[in-house]
């Protein structure tokens, strides 16, 4: 009897996970083109053919849904990324990918701004972890190159990491305002300067 109940729970849970994945896929396809600026959770639900209540059930809030859409975009981007590229090259390739989807750049910017508001919502948790992970990965990658530098130059590593990350995000915001900005090209220049500096 317990085994049957457990199987039933697992079956419902698996269906719930699959339903959430389906909703997220539809939301991602829609929002990466349009963004979600000013749209309520109810309006987002209507635009993707899902009730407000179902979105609340699976994602908790508008912020929770939008963070999951960004996470999905990161996953899609990671899957298409070559294995043998440096992290700075990954940022450049990501920028090339991102500018195909103005809605995602807008959504990322909106949630990044939300992450610095008071409180401890999904955006703050997501971006805090995201930046910490990227900083560690980039510092480790640059560490090999910087180890060959004199001691006084190695102290610049942390600042270089922060500069690269700030450039990547800042250039994409500038691109939203001025589409002629060459985000990928500018990141490529920064990468070359980092190698020769």
Description of the structure:
Helices cover 80% and strands 0% of the residues. It is built from ten helices and no strands. The termini are far apart. It is mainly α and 197 residues long. The protein has a single domain, classed as Tetracycline Repressor, domain 2, CATH 1.10.357.10. Helix 1 packs across helix 4.
Question: Topology, pairings included?
Answer:
Layout: H1 2-34, H2 41-48, H3 52-59, H4 62-79, H5 87-98, H6 102-115, H7 122-146, H8 151-154, H9 157-177, H10 183-196
Helix pairs in contact: 1-2, 1-4, 1-6, 2-3, 3-4, 4-6, 5-10, 6-7, 6-9, 7-9, 9-10
Keywords: DNA-binding
Organism: Pseudoclavibacter terrae
Protein name: TetR/AcrR family transcriptional regulator
Radius of gyration: 20 Å
CATH fold field value: Tetracycline Repressor, domain 2
Q: Specify the CATH homologous superfamily.
A: Tetracycline Repressor, domain 2
CATH architecture: Orthogonal Bundle
Largest sheet: none
Please, what is the average pLDDT?
A: 83
Portion of residues in beta strands equals under 5%
Number of domains: 1
Structural class: mainly alpha
Distance between the termini: 69 Å
CATH class category? Mainly Alpha
Helix content: over 70%
Shape: elongated
Q: Which consecutive residue ranges, at least 5 long each, have pLDDT under 50? A: 1-5
Q: What is the β-strand count?
A: 0
SSE order, one letter for each helix or strand: HHHHHHHHHH
């Amino acid at each position: 009897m317990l085994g049957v109940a457990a199987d039933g729970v697992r079956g419902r849970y698996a269906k719930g996970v699959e339903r959430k994945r389906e909703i997220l896929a539809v939301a991602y396809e829609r929002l990466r083109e349009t963004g979600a600026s000013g749209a309520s959770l109810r309006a987002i639900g209507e635009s993707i053919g899902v009730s407000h209540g179902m979105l609340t059930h699976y994602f908790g809030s508008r912020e929770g849904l939008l963070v999951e859409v960004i996470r999905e975009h990161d996953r899609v981007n990671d899957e298409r990324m070559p294995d043998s590229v440096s992290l700075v090259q990954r940022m450049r390739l990501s920028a090339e990918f991102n500018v195909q989807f103005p809605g995602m750049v807008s959504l990322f910017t909106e949630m990044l701004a939300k992450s610095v508001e008071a409180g401890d919502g999904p955006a703050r948790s997501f971006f805090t972890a995201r930046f910490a992970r990227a900083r560690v990965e980039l510092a480790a990658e640059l560490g090999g190159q910087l180890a060959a530098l004199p001691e006084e130059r190695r102290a610049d590593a942390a600042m270089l990491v922060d500069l690269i990350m700030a450039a990547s995000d800042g250039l994409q915001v500038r691109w939203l305002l001025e589409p002629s900005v060459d985000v990928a090209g500018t990141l490529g220049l920064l990468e070359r300067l980092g190698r020769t500096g």
